[in-house]
Amino acid sequence: MTSSKYREEKMPKPNDSKEIMDRKIEHLKIPLEYDVQHSKNYFNDIKLIHHPIPEIDFEDIDLSVKFFNKNISAPICISAITGGHPISKEINEILAKAAEEENIIMSVGSQRAGIEDPALLDSFKITREVAPNIPLIGNIGIGQVSDANFEVANFTKCIEMINADVMAVHLNALHELVQDKGDISYKLFRVNFKNLRESSKVPIIAKEVGTGFNEELALTLDKLGFDGFDVGGSGGTSFAAIESKRNHFNKQKYTRDPAEVFREWGIPTPVSVIYVRNVSQKLIIATGGLRTGIDIAKSIALGADIGGFAYKFLQSAWKDRKDRKSKSISHTVKEIRTLKNELRSCLWLMNVDKIDKLKGKRNKYVILGELFKWLHQ
Amino acid sequence: MTSSKYREEKMPKPNDSKEIMDRKIEHLKIPLEYDVQHSKNYFNDIKLIHHPIPEIDFEDIDLSVKFFNKNISAPICISAITGGHPISKEINEILAKAAEEENIIMSVGSQRAGIEDPALLDSFKITREVAPNIPLIGNIGIGQVSDANFEVANFTKCIEMINADVMAVHLNALHELVQDKGDISYKLFRVNFKNLRESSKVPIIAKEVGTGFNEELALTLDKLGFDGFDVGGSGGTSFAAIESKRNHFNKQKYTRDPAEVFREWGIPTPVSVIYVRNVSQKLIIATGGLRTGIDIAKSIALGADIGGFAYKFLQSAWKDRKDRKSKSISHTVKEIRTLKNELRSCLWLMNVDKIDKLKGKRNKYVILGELFKWLHQ
Amino acid sequence: MTSSKYREEKMPKPNDSKEIMDRKIEHLKIPLEYDVQHSKNYFNDIKLIHHPIPEIDFEDIDLSVKFFNKNISAPICISAITGGHPISKEINEILAKAAEEENIIMSVGSQRAGIEDPALLDSFKITREVAPNIPLIGNIGIGQVSDANFEVANFTKCIEMINADVMAVHLNALHELVQDKGDISYKLFRVNFKNLRESSKVPIIAKEVGTGFNEELALTLDKLGFDGFDVGGSGGTSFAAIESKRNHFNKQKYTRDPAEVFREWGIPTPVSVIYVRNVSQKLIIATGGLRTGIDIAKSIALGADIGGFAYKFLQSAWKDRKDRKSKSISHTVKEIRTLKNELRSCLWLMNVDKIDKLKGKRNKYVILGELFKWLHQ
Amino acid sequence: MTSSKYREEKMPKPNDSKEIMDRKIEHLKIPLEYDVQHSKNYFNDIKLIHHPIPEIDFEDIDLSVKFFNKNISAPICISAITGGHPISKEINEILAKAAEEENIIMSVGSQRAGIEDPALLDSFKITREVAPNIPLIGNIGIGQVSDANFEVANFTKCIEMINADVMAVHLNALHELVQDKGDISYKLFRVNFKNLRESSKVPIIAKEVGTGFNEELALTLDKLGFDGFDVGGSGGTSFAAIESKRNHFNKQKYTRDPAEVFREWGIPTPVSVIYVRNVSQKLIIATGGLRTGIDIAKSIALGADIGGFAYKFLQSAWKDRKDRKSKSISHTVKEIRTLKNELRSCLWLMNVDKIDKLKGKRNKYVILGELFKWLHQ
């Protein structure tokens, strides 16, 4: 799948899953140790409209929403963070336990490692073991779905691995491109996806990972049978920035690191939410640069259904993990409760008693700054 | 009234009024010692239009306006600052004496303490004692009006306490929310207010305290029988910022201090003045981020009737108080005269001889910066 | 004429012209020693449109324009700087000699001192003595024209003092206001001006000094019989800033120095040029924040006829004055030549062979930044 | 041709080509040693629209375009850098070899030196010797074409010198103006060009060098028979800035260096591409401030055909030259490959499989910042 003519092959692949494992740990640690966030966060350009007399009681605000066929306590998703490594197992156990305790959605990282190396399966399976009730979102990459050898059975394996309620196909073109051996051939995607779609019983969502959807593709994917979108626009963690920190740039080949040059590439999350909602009425999870419960409220006002967070939960889970013996999940639970309290506070301060009444309401916000220009082309 | 299920109860309430008293002193001192002002002040985005040949004499400019049934020398209001503490009494005495000397409006802080603890009554009563003639605005909180045990008699007590010309119901939802034991249940507000409205002989205004009115609620309150608005938009003191300095954030419960997260929440004062004037012809006091007499002129050009100042007068009164023996009010009087001189200068430089001729005149100003975008949604 | 009720009287007036003299020297020195320029210069928001193939020869570009009944070599005016002091005489001699050598316009400072104290006459008269041919603009203040004792004879004296080609009535309301004893009563202005207008044979222009004309007044003055405008908008020297440096602020009376509070008051020069041209076809001198010959070209493209400079020529004359013995005027001549060369370069780079072809041409420039918003209200 | 009346003649011209030679070396070294780039680069205000699922293989993307009658591997041009000096010969040899190896376009610097001094011919000839196949663009200045003694034979000599595929007439009015002895008389340009046009068999393009085309002239040149445009707008190297570094400013004559005053003069490259495309369907090379292959893609989306780079290739060739013995061209080849990889990456991330499908597509980008205002006049 690698476009070998144009892309370097730095080393042989003696132990593919070992290498993937190492990379997975780097992907966890780099965002914790370096600033790999996009330089602009357009959520600051959105202002929600205050309502001075909330006529609902704070505790009566109903944050619960339906996520496909399950009810969750609040429109919050722990976005796909990791999987496929002993440390990933620890992280996933913490996240899943906390999500179960708080009844929110959790996604796992790419399940490819679990399929390719059964020894890594438990880093995924642990999530369902400790979280029997919540919606779990499985995760497979566009590279695998586009593979000539792709089999629906592998997709089914992913579902079964965690008894997934929903599957996400992550679209990480830029990330694959700037990695040293990325999967960047997606010609078979439509054909393979159609087979998948026909045979799969669970809903499938299209998941961007930091570069966002445009309107045209959102419409295409809606028609192709996707059941929703995780927009993953720019504003949060930049995978290109992560790759530029991994220092695998081949200075012999290029004068500039592609990962640096494309660091800020992408459609900002608020713009992408609006783009998708313009053409589709299906589920939208807004991910990419959300930092607080206020950002969930802003996303929903723009048209999203759910707010997704990876970076915040990576931070909380890492803290919980340091206290391994006690099997603590307190930091992560606290983060979820903080988001809920912030979101509830927002709704109360806008006199909105349920999530639905905020969704896509143009009179609930104003747009300032550069975001104003993005939306006035 | 506290939403106990969602909000912490750090300590028992052995001495409720003692606690309120301490808080009141913190509310006075924190703005004097820390920067708790909103980070953006949109008054800078308004430019008044200079007129090179004033054809009126400076001293002939008539700053006087009618405030309900009293005439005042200038459209200036000492906004609600304090009450309910021996130091508050000193402050209120200074402010009221100065207001009387200069014949402007004065508001007292929330009178709740005075009702709950007769020992604190004199901190309010002092204002009318030293200011027999000026309009005094009494002050009761939305929390009290919304209380199941609310009695019109308490409202009447407030009026009588200072022989109030006007009563303000302060709407401080955000402040209550981020305090540790805030009153955040306002379901009974409409019903109780209707009773109040029917039985009350004095005008009643709705007073925001730093987060501003939106158009929809302004229209509702106008129809509900309010006689005016003190817009209190964002731009000046942020009560959330004050609370974040009070360090009562429970780190065990949340990862982020709600008072920090909501520090900048709210509708900017100039926007809120325009919103309210768009839907109501009733009195508007513009408060929140006014710093000079130029800002009074800007507010009036946008449609307000009066400019209100709390922070500036807190500063001046605190200076006067240091010189206790002499019973000095000179700093506060000087501040009032400075505002008058600045406002008069503005009017003169715009060739406007009375306040009415400036009010709501679109051709007297231009709007720049982000404020331009707020108003072009 | 001073509004004594509202303005302080710091000291008696033992020697009025002595005091004026001292002030005049401060007005010269403060801009040279402190930053008293407006904080924003909107000329930077204008971009002239480059033309890659000038089809005219550089030396064939005709910068000459007619200024009333005289021809000048370029649309450049040495704006009113000084008069009424021995040092002013030196400065005026330098400026007038250089203007004569380069055949451009020169204005003198307020001639009031010359009328009130014959001993100071020569500081004005020197200009015509050394510059027999160029257009000289005399200068009288709105305060004097508005005086109850105003006599047309005084105006005539001003003309005769320098054999003025044109008289300017300077409108310096803000400056007078923030000075300690300003003339701020202009009620008689219209009546007195009409007498003046009828009896005067020379053209009379209205001259703002840093706060600009609005549209409404420009139309009024056009109809009242003024023959042109020196717009003097904000962007250059702020007289309020000068006054705030003179430290005459009475801290006993006000909490803030009015000169500080109104430091940035005014309509920016480019905006004011457009305002005036919108309503009048008479002569416009653009003054206030012009720094180079490019700014002259920008002013003319916006609709002005002439570019005026005070600060640049104050700097050059001060340098020339240091070399007193040699009676050097070289710095000032060099500044004029620099402005001409820059203006000629601009015209050449826009393929414009004479000033008229640039005047008011909307297709020769674009407007960016905050200036864009000023003009889109 | 020099406008001697207005421009200084610092020294005699004992050895004209020697002087040109020295200047040429300064023109190479100054951009390498000082910051002489324009202060604003408007390419940052353009955002390309990401497409999450490229359905083409990376290696299948066809970057090749036709450049007049030759095919090149990618729309990349090494813009005119140098010629007429032994060091220029080295640089040109490196650039031409690399361009040949990568099959892209190369332009030579002004060929005037080669015509005037046969000893300098080889610095140009070397390009065709080492690059027999690629499109080479010859280069003659507007000053020479406009010369009264201009002969078509000289133009033919330029073509023959390098067997040029295309000739560029560079329009460097600002540069000539701020040089001490610039050619600034272009009155004969149209007449001479018509002769040239009729007799020349190769296509001729009009080349700006950092100040950009306006719409009006672009239309004129299209009709006059030019076959294309090298827009050379502002954003990259400022020749005025180079001249200000050369320290030939005559302080005795002017108070400000014209090269400093006009440092930022010009139309930004993205604006100029749009201006030209608005009125002409002919070839456009976008030069001026392009830094990466992303900027090529942006230029093409705006309507250009080719992206040109001088500064980047000056840097790469200078590095190659340091390694003279090895006759290395590796840095330059690497730069070309980097640009190609970045451009290909862009196309892939936009799901565009050939250059034509991106060209002038308004739905492929958004415009932010000040560029938004340039385009909304």
Question: Short description, anyone?
Answer:
The structure is a homotetramer of 377-residue chains. Chain A is α/β, with parallel strands linked by helices. Chain A has 16 helices and 12 strands.
Secondary-structure element series of chain A: HEEEEHEHHEHHEHHEHEHHHEHEHHEH
Helix content of chain A: 40-55%
3D shape of chain A: globular
Give the total of beta strands of chain A: 12
| Distance N to C terminus of chain A | 37 Å
Oligomer: homotetramer
Structural class of chain A: alpha/beta
For the largest interface in this structure, which chains are involved and how many residues does each contribute? A-B, 35 and 38 residues
Biggest sheet of chain A, in brief? 8 strands, parallel, barrel
- Rg of chain A is 20 Å
Share in β-strands of chain A: 5-15%
Enumerate the strands of the largest sheet of chain A in spatial order, edge to edge or round the barrel. Answer: 4-5-6-7-8-9-10-11
